[in-house]
Every structure is written in structure tokens, then in C-alpha cells.
TrEMBL record:
Record-given protein name: NAD(P)H nitroreductase
GO molecular function annotations of the record: oxidoreductase activity
Family: Belongs to the nitroreductase family.
Keyword NADP recorded: yes
Named cofactor requirement(s): FMN
InterPro entries: NAD(P)H_nitroreductase, Nitroreductase, Nitroreductase-like, YdjA-like
PANTHER family: NAD(P)H NITROREDUCTASE YDJA-RELATED
Record keywords: Flavoprotein, FMN, NAD, NADP, Oxidoreductase
Length: 200
């Protein structure tokens, strides 16, 4: 786990997606500080495109879980499940959503314009990675998820976003219970090459 004194390179390379967290609450001042600092991500417009909804109280987490479950019912995720399997899955989701200290939904502005939408998602992804790294610096684990519910317009509305916003991911935060091993990255020669001068 990275220490606060470690370099940016160490933070970037040591950060892992943490899927199993302790249920110890996180200090909300730290979360607000992280979000404030993460907002120094680059963006290409006059307005920062990201917006965040936080679920950290028992009531907020219950609501978040219920909306996720309702969304999965609506979009047919459980269609092929037996009642027994559905109940089991429901309980594991409940455990995850209610046991995770802080969940964050990150949305970005939609302009219905190819270039602006591309830049909006790009900037918000930079923001999300800033959040992950700033969490890691404070020994807080994070995982960025893109589960099917984030694309469900009804869910987006229920979370309080507008029809001019789309969700880029959910982030689930907590002190790590288990940190996975790093997935090996490809070597540079597999994905870096020179421009092909004179390519036809
Ligand atoms: C856009 C995006 C979507 C992701 N969605 C999920 C997801 O839905 N579920 C999940 O467990 N991890 C998700 N991840 C995390 C990746 O699985 C993880 O970053 C990858 O395996 C590399 O591991 P590392 O982050 O520990 O280096 C996502 C990451 C990104 C960037």
C-alpha cells in the first residue's frame, strides 16, 4: 500500500482496484478533500463536466441498492434466474452496497455533439482516476465499476441526475480488506511504435 510520501509514479503503479473493503466508515472530510483535489483534472470547455452523487449513510446506501436491484429487474438481468438464485444474488448485492462505506456515482454532461461528448467523457475519466489515486494516497481502496444499471435512464433519474447527464461509473470506497496482485501490463514494444512516415 502506498505511503503519503511516495512519488506519483509509485502511487500510479501501486494502485489496485479494491473490490473487498472493510466496513469501517470513512471520514467524509477526506472524501470531500479528495473530490475537491480531483477536480483539478483537465477539461476542454468552460464548464467542468463531472457531477457526483454520494451514498454513505445507511438510508442512502439502502436507496442506492434498491434502485440498482429495481433497475436489474427492469432491464431483465434476472430473466433466466430461478427465484432461489435471484434471492441469493439480491442478498449478495445488498451486502455489497450496504457494507461498502462510501459509494459514488460520477456523471458527465451530455451535449449531443460528438466532439463535446468525447471531451466530456475524457475529462470525467481523468477526474475519476484522480479520485482513485487520491484515495490510494490515503490508504482508501477504490473500484471503478460500469455495471449495466449505470446505462438505465430510469436509474439515472432516480439518482437525481438529469437527462443531459450520463453516468461514467460508480466508485466504491473503503479501507482495503484485500488488495489484489497487479495485472501484468503489456511491454512497451507491444503497443508503442513510431509513426509510419509516408504511410499510404
Ligand atoms: C472504465 C472502467 C470500467 C471498469 N468496470 C469494472 C467493473 O464493472 N467491475 C470491476 O470489478 N472492475 C471494473 N473496472 C476495474 C478494472 O477491472 C481494473 O482497473 C483492471 O482489472 C486493472 O486492475 P487494477 O485497477 O488493479 O490495475 C473498470 C475499470 C475501468 C477503467
Amino acid at each position: 500500500m502506498a505511503e503519503a510520501t511516495q512519488t506519483l509514479a509509485t502511487l500510479i503503479t501501486s494502485r489496485r482496484s479494491v473490490r473487498q473493503t472493510q466496513n469501517t466508515p470513512l471520514p467524509m472530510e477526506s472524501i470531500h478533500e479528495i473530490l475537491e483535489q480531483a477536480a483539478y483534472a483537465p477539461f476542454h470547455s468552460e464548464v467542468e463536466p463531472w457531477a457526483v452523487k454520494i451514498a454513505s449513510t445507511e438510508q442512502e446506501k439502502k436507496y442506492f441498492f434498491q434502485c440498482v436491484f429495481n433497475s436489474y429487474e427492469r432491464i431483465g438481468i434476472f430473466e433466466s434466474y430461478t427465484d432461489e438464485k435471484k434471492e441469493k444474488v439480491k442478498e449478495s448485492y445488498r451486502e455489497y452496497f450496504e457494507g461498502t462505506p462510501v459509494s459514488i456515482l460520477v456523471a458527465t454532461d451530455v451535449f449531443d455533439h460528438e466532439k463535446k461528448d468525447f471531451e466530456s467523457v475524457g475529462a470525467t475519466c481523468a477526474f475519476i482516476q484522480n479520485v482513485q489515486l487520491l484515495c490510494w494516497e490515503k490508504n482508501i481502496g477504490a473500484v471503478w465499476r460500469t455495471n449495466p444499471y449505470i446505462f438505465d435512464p430510469e436509474f439515472i433519474k432516480e439518482m437525481g441526475f438529469t437527462s443531459k447527464q450520463k453516468i461514467v461509473g460508480s466508485l466504491h470506497l473503503g479501507y482495503p480488506q484485500q488488495v489484489p496482485k497487479a495485472k501484468e501490463r503489456r511491454s512497451l514494444d507491444q503497443w508503442v511504435s513510431r509513426v509510419h512516415v509516408g504511410a499510404e
